[in-house]
Known about the structure:
Blueprint: E1 3-7, H1 11-23, E2 29-34, E3 38-40, H2 45-49, E4 59-61, H3 62-67, E5 72-82, E6 87-93, E7 97-100, E8 103-106, E9 110-112, H4 120-123, H5 130-141, E10 146-152, H6 160-176, E11 182-187, H7 199-211, E12 214-217, E13 222-225, E14 229-232, E15 237-239, E16 242-246, E17 249-251, E18 281-283, H8 296-314, E19 326-331, E20 339-344, E21 352-355, H9 358-372
Parallel strand pairs: 1-2, 1-8, 2-5, 8-18, 10-11, 10-16, 11-12
Antiparallel strand pairs: 3-4, 5-6, 6-7, 9-17, 13-14, 14-15, 19-20, 20-21
Helix pairs in contact: 1-8
Amino acid sequence: MAKVLILGGGFGGVIAAERLAEQLGDEHQITLVSRSRNFVFYPSLVKVAFGRCEAKDVSFDLRHAMLDRRVNFIEAEVARIDPIERKVAIAHGEIEGNISYDYLIFALGRRLATERITGFYEHAHHLLNLDKALKFGKAISNFHKGRAVIGQCAGTRLPVPVYETAFALARLLKERGERDQVRITVVSPGEFASEFEDRDAAIALEKAFAAQQIEFLPNFPIETVTQNSVLTRSGQAINHDLLMLLPPFRGSSAASYLGLTNDEGYLNVDWTMRVTGHKQIYAVGDCVNFTGPKMGHMATRQGEVAAMNLAAEIEGHEPVSHYSHELKLVIDEAGNDTIYLQKDIWNESPATIKRGRFWSWAKRAQKEYWQLSHA
Length: 375
Ligand SMILES: Cc1cc2nc3c(=O)[nH]c(=O)nc-3n(C[C@H](O)[C@H](O)[C@H](O)COP(=O)(O)OP(=O)(O)OC[C@H]3O[C@@H](n4cnc5c(N)ncnc54)[C@H](O)[C@@H]3O)c2cc1C
């Protein structure tokens, strides 16, 4: 019998657990540990903030969903992994102490490095979890005039909710008849849409921004936030009356200082999703050291690849599946200008860009699929 331990109940961990349960016989034990029993469909948090969707519509009960798939679920906080002794230290939760494993899938996502931006905690809104999205929603309700600044810091690696927030705010203000009273500025540490490394993507977004009178401020790496302004290291500053800022991301601290990660704490893996130099440990999702934005569909695909290869490893076979790093996303909330982008990152081929309301529907359908298949 093999003991398989999966850390993290997000896109990567849940898919890995489900695929393993399908592939492994009953003699093997699969356990998933996560700090919360709720799975949250993050791509809908912008809709939650803007009151277009309720909190209950974007989450489901993991324990229940995992039970149906004969996966043990433990609600607990992971402190550290020990790859030599093959055990995981649990800080607190339903159990305490160590859990041993034969095979590990690390899927703890990213850490929000808010400490790198002075004043972030006190003065910035973000929407990277349900509570913060609801709090930002309250601030939007009370905001009627002035300047809204929306952006990401250097190292955020998540452009979609920034663009979606700008479009959603423009639309809401228009509906309220207040669009003329608000200046919307999107700030970025780099050039326009530089995170997609694609000229056509930048042009499509630029057009959509122009249509909504949203201004874009490039090369503005925010280092300090105050009650009314954001500042770069070189002293450039702009004022804000409403601020939604995504902080820098880093890898999960549960794997840091073990020689398994790059300088930002992301786990080094190969194309099979195995952690470099460590048989029996796989990593998937936002926690891995791959270039480009960090997205849910990547975590999902990586979870599938890791599960297939881990099942093969248990049976004594070579890896059977290779991951290919592809970007696929929908920038919603822009009405007819909603953008779909698909790009093979490792091959550096040009992106496929499509526009139109259909993509908004497609994104909604994906959320419904996740929810229905785990009800
Ligand atoms: C607002 C927003 C909008 C987004 N929009 C899109 C989009 O349109 N399209 C898209 O593809 N992607 C989008 N993403 C990105 C996508 O959600 C992430 O890439 C995806 O969630 C990564 O999956 P993951 O499993 O690696 O990590 P996560 O989903 O973050 O899951 C990590 C899990 O580990 C748990 N965990 C973390 N640390 C610990 C610990 N120490 N102990 C125990 N448990 C722990 C967490 O509670 C969580 O369950 C969006 C994200 C956000 C926040």
